[in-house]
Every structure is written in structure tokens, then in C-alpha cells.
Design goal:
Layout (H helix, E strand, L loop, with lengths): L5 E9 L6 H10 L5 E2 L12 E2 L13 H5 L3 H16 L13 E6 L5 H14 L8 H5 L3 H10 L14 H14 L5 E8 L4 H9 L30 E9 H6 L6 E10 L12 H14 L8 E3 L6 H15 L7 E3 L2 H4 L6 H15 L1 E2 L22 E2 L4 E8 L3 E8 L4
Parallel strand pairs: 4-5, 8-9, 8-12
Antiparallel strand pairs: 1-6, 1-7, 2-3, 5-6, 7-13, 10-11, 12-13
Length: 416
């Protein structure tokens, strides 16, 4: 059966490396870390004291100041990235024939954690009447999709995906299926996260998930696949794409950036936080994605790895790649851009999709920085420390989430 072709026509990003796609990509290619000492709160008493914060961000630049105050930071970031993506796609909603054919799915792994924290303080300090009447809509994880849809009049498929760190990738996969099924012509899609808060850090630190060895050298703290990695570093931001059916994009003369050709989702069914050491779930996910895309293993040039800088994830993902790609795994170029952005949790899939698309468009592959001490269990080509130039026709992105969720997306250079 011939599948409806789906293309990317716009991108928007707010990241620790910069507040647009160009700054983000330039930072990745330069091998620059966006990780610094946490400034959002006093992290002195926390085990991890560094993070990938978004700086110089004013939500009033992207939405009405009154509306900005009534929305959590994660929704503010999503709105900014969405506006950029729409502008990049040169998409005027007034020219869309039917708003019901225009949808929006922007996920968040945690939602309004900052709102939960602040409103809890209000409750215990001043009693129930001090809690904001906007608290519930501010914190729920579907609100980014709702607020963005209201702004652009997108009346099509709309909901929030929540699958921890696989959220952004699952959202893109859902939109791919919606467009293929003929349920929409255009979808705004991605992920947004703003969990650099006291509560977020306390929870992740106490479960021993975050890196603590390089608090005095923040830029060296996220080190995927390196033998001295000891945990992930949290980041925040948003990554949003405009996806369209090829027919719709061509009918309006859109600039096509690349094609989304495959997606798959599986579950380890193993543990709430640890990946299955066998890697069976991720192996099945990558294989199913290639099957969905009609690709052979040798067609893939680049993998943007989940690569969280945790001891278990990186070796499990490396083993899964070797199991799926065999001898070709040693020819593949693999990198974890989380080495520079930190882990954006539910937004990771959005910004890492952009990294894949940019690799296809520019013939450049972002590095894995801080790769200094080879790990015998991580013995693939991780593009260490410096970007390289290499033709990329097909790139895939992996993201995994607590609960055993796996997501893989495949992107391909567009050919008419």
C-alpha cells in the first residue's frame, strides 16, 4: 500500500544553546555546551548543581503578557517554538481552507512542575484561598497543545502526549500517522519542558539519576558514552515542527526541509526507570521504524542517540544498535547532542529531530562532546568532540522514557 508522504516545512527551537534554530544548530556544530551553574534557584544543597537552562527568554515577546502570566513556563516555551515554526513554514492560517484539517500535538513529559511547586508553597504558607484559580490549566500536560491551537485556530487533532523522555518523538510519530490516515493536512508537533525546579532536582537527584561529578566544571558534566559518565544533566526548552502532507505542501509552494518516513514505538515491559539490559524493546523499535520507512539497515547514515550520559542507558543503546545494524553499526555515525544541551526530557525528541533534519540539510554531524575516556561497552563511532562533514541521506532519532517507553523516528532527504 502506498503511504501518504509527510514532509517537514518549518522548525522552531528554544534551547540552552540559543533561542532559535540557527543558534541551536550553530552551537551544536561548534561543540559548545549550554550547561552552566543553575540560576533558577539556589542549588547549593542539591547533589547536582548544573543544568541546561534557557536564558534571555521573555515570554512577552511571544504571547500577550497577561496570557503569559496565566501559563506555565513550559507552555510559554512551546508557544515561542510554535511561532517560529509557523513563520519558518511561511504558513498563514488565513489561507488554510479548513481549520479542522490543521492540528497540534505538543507533548510534555512532566508539564507545569514550576506551577505545582509555587502553588504548593502558596497553599501551605497562606491557605487554600492563596492558590491561583489558573493553577490547574497551568500545570496539566496537554495545555501547550491547547494554548497553541487557540492562538492559531487549529481545530484538528489535538491532545498532549506524555511518555516521559520519549514524549517529543512519540508526538511526531502520532502526527505522522494522523497525516498518513488523511485526518489532517497540517500538524504542529513537538515537545516542551521546563522542569529545572527545586522539586524536579530533588526528585531526580534522590533517585541517583543525575550527574554529580562535574559540578565545578558544568560544561564537562554531560558526557554520553564516556567511561566517567555518572548521570544525566537536566535541560529545558522546546522543539516544534510543522508537518504537512506532501500534496498540501506542494500545493502552496512550501519550502520542503526533509521527509518523515518512519516511526515506531515499543515498551521494554521491564522496569519503571531502568532500560532492559537485553535491549530487546529498543531493538524492536528501531527494526519496526526501518520497516515502516521501507529502509534497509545500510540506508541509515546517522543516529541521533538517546545517549543520556547514564551508565545503563548508553551501554544498552550501543548494544541495541549493534544488534540491529550488525556490521553496519561500525560505519554509522552516532552522536548524542544531549552532551551539549543536557536532557530536555519531553522536549528532547523535538530538538533532536531538528538536529537530524539539519544534518540531512547541511551534511554536517554534531559531535558528542566530553568523550574523553573510551568505554569498552560503548565502542561505536560517536563523533567525538568535533563535528564532522559527511553526506546524510537518512537519519534516525532514538528516545527512551521512564516506564520502558521507546520511540524511533526516521528522516530522509526530500526527493520529489
Amino acid at each position: 500500500m502506498n503511504k501518504t508522504r509527510v514532509v517537514v516545512t518549518g522548525m522552531g527551537a528554544i534551547t540552552p544553546l540559543g533561542n532559535n534554530v540557527e543558534q541551536f544548530w550553530d552551537g551544536l556544530v561548534a561543540g559548545r555546551s549550554g550547561i552552566r551553574k543553575v540560576e533558577a534557584f539556589d542549588a547549593t544543597s542539591f547533589q547536582c548543581k548544573v543544568g541546561g537552562e534557557v536564558v534571555d527568554f521573555n515570554p512577552a515577546d511571544w504571547m500577550d503578557p497577561k496570557d503569559a502570566k496565566r501559563n506555565d513556563r513550559y507552555t510559554q516555551l512551546a508557544m515561542a517554538a510554535s511561532r517560529m515554526a509557523m513563520a519558518d513554514a511561511n504558513l498563514d492560517v488565513k489561507n488554510l481552507a479548513d481549520p479542522v484539517r490543521f492540528g497540534c500535538i505538543i507533548g510534555s513529559g512532566i508539564g507545569g512542575l514550576d506551577t505545582i511547586e509555587k502553588q504548593t508553597f502558596r497553599l501551605f504558607d497562606g491557605g487554600p484561598r492563596k492558590v491561583s484559580p489558573f493553577m490547574i490549566p497551568m500545570l496539566i500536560g496537554n495545555m501547550a497543545s491547547g494554548v497553541v491551537a487557540i492562538e492559531f485556530g487549529a481545530m484538528g487533532p489535538n491532545y498532549g502526549v506524555v511518555s516521559a523522555c520519549a514524549t517529543g518523538s512519540h508526538a511526531i510519530g502520532d502526527c505522522l500517522r494522523i497525516l498518513r490516515a488523511g485526518e489532517a493536512d497540517v500538524m504542529l508537533v513537538g515537545g516542551s519542558e521546563a522542569s529545572i525546579t527545586q522539586l524536579g532536582y530533588a526528585g531526580f537527584c534522590n533517585m541517583k539519576a543525575m550527574g554529580t561529578s562535574f559540578n565545578d566544571e558544568p560544561t564537562r558534566s554531560s558526557r554520553p558514552f564516556d567511561a566517567k559518565r555518572d548521570g544525566f544533566i537536566m535541560g529545558e526548552g522546546a522543539g516544534v515542527l510543522v508537518l504537512e502532507t506532501l500534496e498540501h505542501a506542494q500545493s502552496r509552494g512550501a519550502n520542503i526541509l526533509c521527509e518523515v518516513v518512519g516511526h515506531a514505538a515499543t515498551c521494554d515491559a521491564y522496569h519503571i526507570t531502568s532500560p532492559d539490559p537485553s535491549g530487546r524493546g529498543l531493538q524492536a523499535c528501531m527494526r519496526n521504524c526501518l520497516k515502516d520507512a521501507g529502509l534497509a539497515e545500510t540506508d541509515v547514515d546517522y543516529i541521533n542517540a538517546h545517549g543520556t550520559s547514564t551508565p545503563y542507558n548508553d551501554k544498552t543503546e550501543s548494544a541495541a544498535i549493534k544488534a540491529v545494524f550488525g556490521e553496519h553499526s561500525h560505519s554509522l555515525k552516532i552522536s548524542s547532542t544531549k552532551s551539549m544541551t543536557g536532557h530536555l526530557l519531553g522536549a528532547a525528541g523535538g530538538i533532536e529531530a531538528i538536529a537530524c533534519i539539519q544534518s540531512i540539510r547541511t551534511g554536517k554531524i554534531a559531535p558528542t562532546i566530553n568523550y574523553e575516556n573510551p568505554d569498552p561497552e560503548c565502542d561505536l563511532s560517536y563523533v567525538p568532540n568535533k563535528a564532522i562533514e559527511a553526506p546524510v541521506k537518512v537519519a534516525i532519532s532514538n528516545n527512551l522514557g521512564f516506564g520502558g517507553h521507546n520511540a524511533t523516528i526516521a528522516f530522509k532527504g526530500f526527493e520529489a
